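Chain A, query sequence.
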Amino acid sequence: MRSATRPFPKRLAMQWILALNALVLALVLAGCAANAPASVDAAKEDATQTSAQAIDNPEAGATKASFASWSKDSASLQKLVEYVEAATTEGGKGYVPPEDRIAVFDLDGTLMCETYPWCFEYMVFADYALNNPNYKAPDDVAAVAREILDSAWGEKPKDMSTRQARAAAIAYKGLTPAELEAYVEGFKGSAAEGFSGMTRGQAWYRPMLEVVSYLQDNGFDVYVVTATERNIVRAIVAGTLDVDPSHVIGTEYGYTATGQGEEADDKYTFQQGDEVVFDGSYEGENAKTCKVDAIVREIGKQPVLAFGNSSGDVSMLTYTLSGNAYPSAGFMVLADDTDREYGDAEEAAEDRASWEKLGFTIFSMRDDFATIYGDGVAKAPVK
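Chain A, predicted structure.
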């Protein structure tokens, strides 16, 4: 029988000490986790889910989601949810392996506001050309910028997409991509004309942001494929979308090295101290079938989901649905809300009929979006 005064064996004493230390560490970590601040994304999600209707099938592989900004019982949203549930249920008929879950989104009019009074790209160019004290626009560049502003809330000038892009390429000549992105970042803080209660950088369709997050939570690789210049888009999405710059595909302006002069790229060797800057050239708009070409070239896989809002996106959606090795779907955001946004009912009816014939599912801004920009934002037409 062990004596009451006999020393405790050293081996057992060490085990007790280690066990006690482990217990203390576990308690400390648990307390830290309980008090740790939520991430920005989590905080946003919590804030938007207070009035949400959960759309969930616990037997499927899809991550549970609540869509706070969507109308209850949206049949179009339910189609997307059913697709994702099937795509993430391993062994199911509609299963898509994680490495092939590619989703492509247009930007203007699909994810964010296209009317203040024109798309972001037009407005930031006009501001740079006419209001930047560090830049003196040539007459032809300034003329395009003034035409954009003079046509506000009216008909889009003929061939403006091409003329704006060419003028902008000249305006940004000599800037590094980082310098352009910095200018865009500042412009995001300007008021979104035609609305009260939000800036241009806040002018995102909340329902569509929820769709992006939902897809990413379920293993989809999201790309933004747009007609807007690529570096501008990288700056626009920064701080809002969790999309890597490499996943932004847009219209291209040409580049050169600062020491290159007139020498061709395939003849010039990049030097220490060189910087990459815009060279003033424009390589064509990334719209219609150009989007398909860009997806093939830069992603190398056929998407299984595509989202757009205009004729410039039809090719991308059609490509996604055509001969796909996996189940696929295309969704179009329909600008049919004339109360909260600047929709056109007659044009929207024509678009709906045309897109439904092509097999696309319609996201009606009027019927499917419970809110567009969130509380405190209202349409406020400029006189």
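Residues 98 and 219 are 6 Å apart (CA to CA). Residues 1-59 have pLDDT under 50 and may be disordered.
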